[in-house]
Write a structure and sequence with these properties.
With 128 residues, this protein is mainly alpha-helical. The chain has helices spanning 2-21, 26-47, 72-103. It has a domain at 2-51 and 73-109: Helix Hairpins, CATH 1.10.287. It starts with a helix and ends in a 25-residue tail after the last helix.
Amino acid sequence: MIEWAIAACVTVVAASGLYLACSRDLVSIAVGIMLLGSAVNLFVFAAGRLGTAAPPLIAAGATGPAAALANPVPQALVLTAVVIGFALACFGVALALALGARDGETDADALGHAEPAPRADGAPGELP
């Protein structure tokens, strides 16, 4: 039963993140990307088995594990991804707020003036 609840949570968080990432407000886009990362982290964590298991330790002198062991790799990957995702989210929100403070706009479509104009031959323009 818990697998269905986790699957529903992943679906709701991913859909919310996708909805926000497709918006025009820069802060909403940053929060949407953060939610998408959280949905992926929850999915990876759930893929590592949700049941109870013993810690991955083998007693001294034993030839093998006494019971089913928990897989520590998904937990380590998710922990690392959470830290990286949090740093990326902080940077994205700070960048969006700084851009909004500088230009007075947080609308992604209204910030087209920040891009350099294309050259006469159609190649991308260069920043000054």
